Amino acid sequence: MTLQELRYLVALADTGHFGQAAEACFVSQSTLSTGLKKLEDFLGVIVFDRSLKRVSPTPIGREIVESARRIVDEAARIRELASYAKDPMDRTLHLGVIPTLGPYYLPHVLTRVREAHPKLRLLLREEMTPHMLAHLADGKLDAGLLALPIDDPSLDVAPLFEEPFLAAVPAGHVLAKSRSIDIDELAAAGLMLLEEGHCLRDQALAACHLQTIKSEEIRATSLETLRQMVAMELGVTLIPTLAGAGAGNTGTQVVLKPIAKPGASRVIGMVWRKRSAMSASIERLAETLAQRLPPGVLPISRR
Length: 303
Prior knowledge:
The chain has helices at residues 3-15, 18-25, 29-43, 59-83, 102-116, 129-137, 183-187, 199-207, 223-231, 241-245, 279-291; strands at 48-49, 56-57, 92-97, 121-126, 143-148, 155-170, 193-194, 219-220, 237-240, 254-258, 265-273, 298-299. It has 303 residues and is α/β, with parallel strands linked by helices.
């Protein structure tokens, strides 16, 4: 039983197709088929049911595939540990970021990250939280920037900063004249939210102490759409501080006001897989981000 045969095993389980698995392993289909047959002969069991349209593991095969996956992952971890032992910041990181944060936060910090870690290469990908967690689990992402809390025992978490929410109201609205706006007043003034699936929607509902909104007719697909809807006097909303700084062409039509104490906010953090070979790199990146905060947010120590 060889490591290469275990790689064939995992690839076929993932693709369900001999040709695609061979392509993923950079070998011919005959080489992959021969290797898998040799492995099955060695184990004395049938690992894959080949009678189906999509090749699938047998019941015992599913258990074998999961064990093989752990072995292949650990082998990759050993190679990465050896490769980056001299400089953990000389590497490429696939970093996910939620859409309500990325466009407003990254421009503040990417230059500073490059200055602190010139050899670090970040490949950025905007993902909503459920998709990001799925891609962290399957290895397509190395780490993610998102709103906490995240209740997943397979992930390490590093809180970075607290981002207050602002009330966004039309310029002609009665609440626009207030120095600060009570969260209950905002909730009663026609609160508009993002559509299902956006973590900001849940954060806004939690901030307003609501489970849902009665008679909700309008939902936005993005923060910028939400801002435009406020400018059109369709309602009011909550905007994260960093997004509020990028008011765009609605700046004179939308008034941003602080939330009256105790206020409302969200905590942004970095998450990554426990025992990841990149843990040292991600932890150092998280430290850099926590030390170089954009205007308007609060360090965790001040919470």
